[in-house]
Amino acid sequence: MAMRAGSSLQPLRGAGRIRRTAAESWLLAAAGDRERAATEWDRQGLALLTAGHRWDAVRIPPHLLNPALDRHATPALLRYHLTEARLSGAVFCDPYRPFLYLLVPPGADDDWPRALTAAGAERLGSDHSHTCHVGVPRIDRDRPPGSYWLQPPDSGGRRHVDAARLRDVLHARVHQPESGTP
After folding, report:
1. Cross-strand pairs, 122
2. 8, 5, 44, 64: which is closest to 146 by C-alpha?
3. Are 163 and 113 within 8 A, CB to CB?
4. What percent of the chain is helix, strand and coil (3-state, nearest 5)?
């Protein structure tokens, strides 16, 4: 993507620039109108993209990653817990709601367990009856204010979070006994 007026993207050279451009292109492929989405990123730092084509999203409150996490968790702490859970792949945070959005392969979570939905882990994708649109931050946003990437998509094969691993982590968290329970 070329630098446009009003863009706050920092100029990169070499491999960093190639990776960022590839990640932006991959994300923009989920836009109904690529130019409009790119302009939204430039002006607002956030673009409305369609889940279900290149990726589905699983939206979770931070406490499902770790009970100690809440809206005040720092980006570093959230990244630490993603690493501890061995959840690599594209993940961004909306600190105001607060939710984490983990991008999984499209359709990989079609059999999403009801127990996880009831616990607050919601699958956002596309099926025959509806389409979900997700506000996705610009690729260079890595801290608040606003939505930001905890783990941006990487052209080196780290684009999607492993949906089965995510399900296992969340299932273990949801069915974990409360502390102090014998």
Report:
1. 59
2. 44
3. no
4. 30, 20, 50
In the 8-state DSSP scheme, what is residue 62? G
How does residue 180 score in pLDDT terms, banded at 50, 70 and 90? very low
Predicted model pTM: 0.87
Residue-wise pLDDT for 52-106, tens only, equals: 988 999 999 999 999 999 989 999 999 999 999 999 999 999 998 899 999 999 9
| Beta-strand relationship, 122-124 and 56-60 | antiparallel
Structure tokens at 156: 């080196």
- Those residues with Cβ within 8 angstroms of residue 45's Cβ, 6 or more apart along the chain or in another chain: 137, 138, 141, 146, 147
User: Length of the chain, please?
Assistant: 182
Residue 11 CB: number of other CB atoms within 10 A?
8
Q: Any residues with CB less than 8 A from the CB of 29 and at least 6 apart, and which?
A: 53, 54
> Which residue carries 């709601």 as its tokens?
97
Collapsing DSSP to helix, strand or coil, 104 comes out as strand
Of 82, 89, 80, nearest to 54 by C-alpha is: 89
CA distance 156 to 1: 18
* Diameter over CA atoms, the chain: 61
SS3 179: coil
